[in-house]
Amino acid sequence: MNTILPERERKKHKQSRETGPTGDKGSTKASTPPAPASRAPEPASHSRQAPGEEPAIAAQPERRSLLKGLFGFLGNHQDNNFEQAETGDEFTAPEPAGWTVQEKRMLANIAELHGARVADIMIPRADIEALELNKSLGEALQLFEQSGHSRLPVYAETLDDPRGMIHIRDLLNYITRVGFGRAEADKGEADSDKNFAALNLNMPISRLDIIRDVLFVPASQPAGRLLARMQASRTQMALVIDEHGGTDGLVSMEDIVELIVGDIEDEHDEAEADIVKEGQNSWIIDAAAELEELQDKLGMDFADNALAQEVDTLGGLIVTALDRIPARGEKVEIMPDYIFQILDADRRRIKRIRLIRCGPQAETPPSHS
Questions:
Q1: Tally of domains within the chain
Q2: Residue 319: which domain range?
Q3: Mean per-residue pLDDT for 237-251?
């Protein structure tokens, strides 16, 4: 079965910014910024500010006005904006004064969103995790549990014949109706005797009447325009269709929002170690691992590497050295005595790397003679 990356599987904001084509260090120092406010501030009684203190955004009308203009640019009536961008009259955010580093970065991300295409952020077909139309209710529950998704696409025979998606909430609502419906049929039965024995886990999902529509978009569509379509249709999943009508990938609203605010993690996300020893002279490393951490833990010396002075992370170092995003499976040598194998990457960034130490720096296994 093809599989999709979980919605929660983005690592850190630094990874998405530092492992891009530029590898620029200047825009990656601050931590992940909070989501921008797209509505008026909450009343003072719900604010964390001191009594009598005006909200910061209200105290700076130019900030509120600028944010309103930017989000209008991303809103439902944005086609003219994209037409201007595509003909060379691109939207440019003014340089704000008195803003924090996080706010400036978020502002720049919003301004750059018009240049992002669905192809840049989509989950590739090979990573799509989906339900075949004739799978049972029990199998659907199992896949939801294993994947950690709240939505799964549904297809008939192959992903090139998509039929929609299932939301975990609709699945739970169906289960609840079946169990509670049996109890309500017997008016003398107490609430504590709700009976889920009537639930048929072998029932095909095609007969549950819970499949929702999804959007279908070309890979060339601007990400901002897709966000507007998702808002208008109240749909948070879209399948990317190629020129022949086949399924090329999948994109969620979260993928687009993360372009602005950075990686979004929820309470189910598990912290993973940045560096995991694999063998005598090999390690599996998160591309967002800091160079300082690699130097401290693995003894890697970046003192004579000029590029290492421009970036913070291993992924950023590799992309800057190559001036491109390497392909999955590619092996690169950008430092003496080390080989970097790309284990996971997409069109925008490197995600995981295998580091192999070789040459004089390699450790020799102890002799048993």
A1: 2
A2: 275-359
A3: 93
Higher-pLDDT residue of 133, 307: 133
Report pLDDT for 318.
Answer: 94
- Give the residue from 248, 222, 251 showing the smallest Cα distance to 237: 251
Q: Which residue has the tokens 């989906």?
A: 130
How would you class 250 by CB atoms within 10 Å of its CB: exposed for 0-12, middle for 13-18, buried for 19 or more? buried
Contacts of 25 (CB under 8 A, 6+ apart): 18, 310, 311, 312, 316
| 302 and 180 inside one domain | no
How far apart (Å, rounded) are the C-alpha atoms in residues 294 and 302?
Answer: 9
Q: Which two tokens stand for residue 169?
A: 């909430």
- Closest to 108 measured CA to CA, from 198, 8, 17: 17
230 and 112 together in one domain: yes
Q: How far apart are CA 363 and CA 130, in angstroms?
A: 44
Mean pLDDT of 38-49: 37
The structure tokens listed for 369 are: 């003679």
Domain assignment of residue 288, yes or no = yes
Burial of 53 (0-12, 13-18, 19+ CB in 10 A): exposed
- Per the CB < 8 A criterion, the answer to whether 310 and 24 are in contact is yes
pTM of the predicted protein model = 0.55
Query: CA 264, 267, 269 angle in degrees (round to 5)?
Result: 65
Q: Are 155 and 163 in contact (CB under 8 A)?
A: yes
Structure tokens at 182: 């049996």
